[in-house]
Amino acid sequence: MALMQFRSPPHHTAAMAAFLDGASIEVMPRTAAGITDFRDHLPAGTMVFVAHIDGTPAEAMQATVARLAHEGFRPVPHIPARMVADRAMLAEWVAAYRDGGAEGALLLGGGLSSPRGAFSDSMQLLDSGLFGEFRRLFVAGHPEGSRDIDPGGGEAEVMRALRWKADFAARTDARMQIVTQFAFEAQPVIAWARRLRAAGIDMPIRIGVAGPAKLQTMLKFAIMCGVGPSLRVLQRRARDVTKLLVPYQPTDFVAELAEARADDPDFPISAAHLFPLGGIAAATGWLSAARAR
């Protein structure tokens, strides 16, 4: 399958290319099935996260993980705590993913309003002791807060949970990273990442980046995923009739993050995590163009 063609981003710099060198991407089994061979779209060794959406059969998750590993990638399955019925199911999933070639997993609460079994959050998953053979573990981050975790707004509970996870990493030597929801404004994201460092939360951060998509598609996903104040970037764009038919691209957002990292050797954001909201081909096409020197 041929890649979609993208012109070099207008804010292309060596800093931006370097920032995107270690980028990861997120797919679902359903969308991955539409890609004949991921090697036509991504460099070997790319970390590919496999999202477990409610209703996705466990067998589809496991098959996608095994396929990605076979094609030379590093699959990272999502494990949503609230979808796990019991410890036996969790152990079965972990073993199947490990046998399929996964060396890590993203542990999160999941999108359900209430748990279906014994687990309700990622801290309980970590405490299960079942992930010791994974080389890397990932947990969710929320630069604009999470109404699911802090119903009244703010970030007190989000910060408390991340401190617990940072302490877990320190006492167990687990190699842990934070993977965030996507956002559209760089400066608030940078400020959030620095607040984490100031609070002693020093896990590397993979910042969520929304891949190219039509504006209407982007607005739909942003609202559905609970994107916070940075949604105003899209709302301003929607009021500009000259941009209504032009797909959103994350070039400005990523360039600002890349420049900040180039200026600060202790910058807490280590990499980008791409959400292919406009399709995998569009996202990987943009990524390839942005990485090109």
UniProtKB/TrEMBL annotation:
UniProt keywords, alphabetically: Oxidoreductase
Name of the molecule in the record: Methylenetetrahydrofolate reductase
Species: Paracoccus spongiarum
